[in-house]
Design goal:
The protein has a single domain, classed as Porin (Beta Barrel). Helix content is 13%, strand content 61%. It is built from 2 helices and 9 strands.
Amino acid sequence: MKKLMMLFCVALMSVGASAQEYYEEEEEGAKAGDWAIGLNLGMGFGGIPTVVNHDITEGYVNFGLVPKVQYYVTDAFRPEISFSYFIENKRQSFWDINLNFHYLFHMKYGIYIYPIIGATFQHYHYDYAKDSATRAVLEAGGINFKGNDWHFGLNAGAGVQYDITPNLYANLEMKYQYVKDYGRGVLQLGIGYRF
């Protein structure tokens, strides 16, 4: 999965590096000093161990909401802070705070692609032992069946943005959160408003 995500990110960034065609005429869009707010719908997937039918397996998928705030330092460079909350699935819930940096490469017709690099602070809650049989299996294996974990990590990925109007845009992002023992991929589809 990590190799596939890295291949996706490299391919998306190489398109931006080799195809930087700009409109000849002046185009409305983000300017230095602009702010943007938005909301993404996210899907997180990864290798966090889970318990299914008293067996420990790897990987699960959960969905969440990601409000975000962006500030345009230049027309193309913007830091972004976001908060993600992923709904409980397989007795696990997850939230994180991210500080990411984007550099937008303008393609054509209001389309931009951008690399994503940043940091993440994650909170992971799990409670596998809702029944005594599962609790016994986990205790016998020396595995914590309930807890909260906190982790720092790095984000890396790529995104594409389409300006619907001069102030409204849609975006699609794919990133990997590199966190020791808790790395996961995140796919997000969202909308933002610049002002």
